[in-house]
Amino acid sequence: MKFVIVFVALFALAYAAPAGEVQILKSDSDVGPENFQYAWETSDGQAAQAEGHLNNVGSENESLAVKGSYRFIGDDGVTYEVQYIADENGFQPQGAHLPVA
After folding, report:
1. Helical (H) or strand (E) element with 1
2. d(C-alpha 14, C-alpha 74), whole Å
3. Phi, psi (deg, nearest 5) at residue 60
4. Per-domain residue ranges for the chain?
5. How far is Cα 76 from Cα 9, in angstroms, rounded to an integer?
6. Three-state SS for 81?
7. Where is the signal peptide (predicted)?
8. pTM exceeds 0.90, yes or no
9. pLDDT along the chain (101 residues), means of 10
């Protein structure tokens, strides 16, 4: 399942890439039965990294907890970075450009 998530994320990046020659500068991943981590970076300023693990393994309350970040350059030329936690409490992003509740 985690491999599928990583694969889909990389596929989405490739599909959304602008026309032109974008080079992959870094691409690392390690997927285990109860955890994963990945990191990638491209020559156009995009990057992402995340690590996750299963909580309450083997119980009916098993859940996935992920901590990571991603970075991209917007159409306005500004670099945006989001750091996030995704766990049983939902997706919790933080970034200088995001409003705070």
Report:
1. none
2. 17
3. -75, -10
4. 21-94
5. 24
6. strand
7. 1-16
8. no
9. 57 62 94 94 96 91 94 94 94 93 79
Amino acid in position 4: V
From CA 86, how far away is CA 52, in angstroms rounded? 9
Query: Residue 83 corresponds to which tokens in the numbers above?
Result: 């750091």
Measuring CA to CA, which residue among 95, 65, 20, 31 is closest to residue 10? 31
User: What pLDDT shows up at residue 58?
Assistant: 87
How big is the CA angle at 66 (ends 23 and 53), to the nearest 5 degrees? Answer: 110
What span, in angstroms and rounded, lies between the C-alpha atoms of 49 and 63?
20
- Residue 41 CA: distances (Å) to CA of 78, 81, 100: 17, 13, 28
Rounded CA separation 59/53 (Å): 14
**Token digits for 71?**
């970075």
Q: For residues 29 and 37, give the distance between their C-alpha atoms in angstroms, rounded to a whole number.
A: 6
